[in-house]
Design brief:
The chain is an alpha/beta fold. It is built from eleven helices and ten strands. About 35% of the residues are buried. Mean pLDDT is about 80; it is low at about 120-140.
């Protein structure tokens, strides 16, 4: 077992990585900003640190600089996303252990981390060292099954195409009745469920699913801020409630987390 520190301002990323690596027996510490991350690093000296480059306040380069001052040999894996090329170049010059795109599949992420842990502790890699993990295919296995329930055809089609291209098995339903019928046929890992639909709204659909002992995850989508409905959705055990228009990357992270949490 290793101690892993995750420093990322996106709580969903931290929750996802904690859920993944805890299942492999590792102790996972999380920090949502650079200052808290540095405090945890100094207290626990983790086997390695997963560090986001783009954070408000103290960015990843500043955090990496201070980690290097505390321990020049520390293993740091950088998490990269869109628009971080300049920061990535600075990180390379500081000899990070590896780079991981936030778009990598969980399989590739875990594989990279396991490889790092099998290596002896050594001085930081040179800037010219290759980073195979960054070049890895972003989706290498079936990622789970999703049922999208929304009365708006463009949203159903958008989510169907997006997640099908990422190897999810995707079915769609335009209303609650058809959704319940599809769940009876085959229970999905995750249901992406619109809160406001004519006839049977998303809250009523979830109540009926719970009555049928559906144990998978449910993610609500909503275009309004009806506090009563949203609170009811949380009390019924939804994984998360996301606003419209849909942030696809955030939704994918939530689905990955929901698949993990719903797996026995």
């Amino acid at each position: 077992m290793a101690t892993i520190l995750v420093i990322d301002d996106e709580r969903m990323v931290c929750d996802l990585l904690r859920a993944v690596f805890s299942r492999y027996g590792h102790e996972v510490l999380t920090a949502f900003d650079g200052r808290n991350g540095l405090d945890l690093f100094e207290q626990h000296r983790p086997r390695f640190t997963l560090l986001d480059l783009r954070m408000p306040g103290m960015n990843g380069i500043e955090v990496l600089t201070r980690i290097r001052a505390l321990d020049p040999r520390a293993a740091v894996i950088v998490l990269t996303g869109a628009g971080s090329a300049d920061l990535e170049n600075q990180a390379r010059q500081m000899g990070v252990t590896d780079f991981l795109s936030k778009g990598l599949s969980l399989e590739a992420l875990v594989g990279t981390v396991e490889r790092v842990m099998q290596q002896p502790v050594k001085p930081p890699a040179s800037p010219s060292q290759s980073t195979d993990a960054k070049k890895a295919p972003s989706h290498s296995q079936k990622a789970g099954s999703i049922l999208v329930v929304d009365d708006e055809p463009p949203i159903r089609e958008l989510l169907r195409k997006y997640f099908s291209s990422r190897d999810y098995q995707v079915r769609v339903a335009p209303d609650g009745q058809q959704a319940l019928a599809l769940v009876d046929q085959k229970s999905p890992d995750i249901i992406v469920l619109d809160v406001h639909m004519p006839g049977m709204n998303g809250i009523e659909v979830l109540k009926r699913l719970r009555a049928k002992n559906y144990a998978g995850g449910v993610i609500f989508l909503t275009s309004s801020q009806d506090e009563r409905l949203l609170q009811e959705g949380l009390e019924l055990g939804s994984v998360d409630i996301l606003g419209k228009p849909v942030d696809l990357e955030r939704l994918e992270l939530t689905i990955q987390l929901g698949c993990i949490l719903s797996t026995p």
